[in-house]
Amino acid sequence: MSEYHGRWSNRFTYILAATGAAVGLGNIWKFPYIMGENGGGAFVLVYLACIALIGVPVMMAEVMIGKYGRLAPSKSVIKLARDSGRSSAWRVTGWGGVIAGFLILSFYVVIAGWAVAYTWYGFTGSFTGRSADEIGQLFSNLNASPYPLLGWSGVIVLGTSIVVGKGVQKGLEKAVNYMMPILFVLLTIMVLYAANTGEFAQAVRFMFEPDFSKLSWNGVLIALGHSFFTLSLASGIMIMYGAYLPEGTSLVKTSVYIALMDTLVALMAGLAIFPVVFANGLPAGAGPGLIFQSLPIAFGQMPLGSLFGGSFFLMVVVAAFTSSIALIESSVAWLVEHRGLLRWQAAALAGFAIWLVSLLTVFSLTGAEWSVVSLWGDIKMSYFDLLDYITANIMLPLGGLIISVFTAWAVKEEISRKMLDTEPALYLLWQTCLRYIAPVAIMLVFLNLIGVLDL
Ligand code: TRP
Q: Which of 165, 189, 349, 360 qualifies as a cystine partner to 383, CB 3.0-4.6 A?
């Protein structure tokens, strides 16, 4: 086991890299549409509670594992388990993370491909002066045949493999230093524009007035799963980033910052999208196409709309790209460590495998008949929905459950106390969240959903 000797040059680079992995399609594309599908306010409230009481403590736990072990994720887990006198079987979290990351990436690249297409549409003026119907048509045309989708998502797969294969993430991180702030500024402009021209008050009520009659148990599970998805948890990546954390950097404070930024971006995306959705009579529950069917209407009407529209989707592509790189990293690292491949070979192989599996999502979006699978009863889902559901709503919460139990029950308190290095009251809060709140909440939601409980 060779120890990682590199360290992030400072706290700020670490926060940027971790935020780069966290902020992505989950915030800008997924959060608004699942919120819309699940009735708004009550969903947002449950989501925020999941982030605060489960997501943030689990993030601290993962960073702690990495910082303690200073090794690849599963090896760090083994080291921490052994030093706590526990079985090395806890390393199962590692495998689950690699598989979940791989499956997530298979649909992530296709959605990122939509954003690449929309960057092109934006800069070439395709939104200008279009009606809501015409904007909707643009979206259906994009999904009418598999070839354009394959091309656009291929750009992302290829780019990700090349960057990871050459190991030039460092250079990319520098570029991201500039792009994250631009994304922030553009989102702010969109929120202000939406506040002026759209149904802003209605959107604020929709997002912040909780109506629990609109939230099902399935909705609660989606909020829970999304809190793991959006913070990039349970896929090994935060353990890996924690392994490079400089001594003396507080993992408690940095985790809170990262979660705050991530949540802010998601809420801003909602505030930019829903005023446009309501002003144009679009359904809030339109599904995965929501952002692509709403924001271009606003870009089409505003001054310099082509510039803003193109730049906005370009920033979405960048945000998705930094997440894709982190997502493919666990598969590539696994192939290098366990199969002895060279880095570029591992990146090429992982890229090719991702591309193959991404076909399931491409054909789900074009509506191919074979892409709909019948589950039990009369429940039917497309492969895309199934991949999303299994990863975000089942694998990630299960991974989070194992990490919670491992770090808060199995790891020696002496070690976790020293690693967290925070006030006793905060430590107790962290421990309580992971010992009781997270496991009980996750189990409760699962049991309700499969009908064992009936709350
Ligand atoms: N957090 C990313 C987003 O919101 C998606 C994601 C999930 C991810 N798991 C990850 C990114 C692991 C990097 C690594 O878009």
A: 360
Phi, psi of 372 (to 5 degrees): -100, 125
Residues 38-60: tens digit of each pLDDT: 999 999 999 999 999 999 999 99
Single-letter code of the amino acid located at 451: G
Residue 380's DSSP bridge partners are 374
Q: Burial letters for 105-139: b for 16+ Cβ neighbours within 10 Å, e otherwise?
A: bbbbbbbbbbbbbbbebbeebbbeebebeebbebb
Question: How remote is the CA of residue 234 from the centroid of ligand 1, in Å?
Answer: 10
105 alpha carbon to ligand 1 midpoint, in Å? Answer: 9
- The predicted structure's pLDDT at residue 4: 62
pLDDT at 137: 96
Amino acid 3: pLDDT: 59
CA quadruple 103, 108, 114, 117: dihedral, nearest 10: -110
Q: Are 31 and 266 in contact (CB under 8 A)?
A: yes
Neighbour tally for 281: CB within 10 Å:
8
Beta partners for residue 374, in sequence order: 380
- Widest Cα–Cα separation across the chain: 66
pLDDT below 50 — which residues of the chain?
Answer: 1-2
pLDDT at 378: 80
Question: 100: which 2 tokens?
Answer: 């979940």
For 380, phi then psi, to 5°, come to -125, 145
Q: In the prediction, which pLDDT does 384 show?
A: 96
Ligand 1 midpoint to CA 85 (Å): 32
Other Cβ atoms closer than 10 A to 356:
11
Residues lining ligand 1, judged by CB closer than 6 Å? 21-22, 24-27, 101, 104, 229-230, 232, 235, 237, 323, 326-327
How much is the pLDDT for 11?
81
For residues 76 and 91, what is the distance between their CA atoms, to the nearest angstrom? 9
- Output Rg (C-alpha) for the chain, integer angstroms: 21
**Which residues is 381 bridged to in the sheet?**
373
Give the Cα separation of 263 and 258 in Å (integer).
Answer: 9
From the CB of residue 374, how many other CB atoms can be counted at a distance below 10 Å? 9
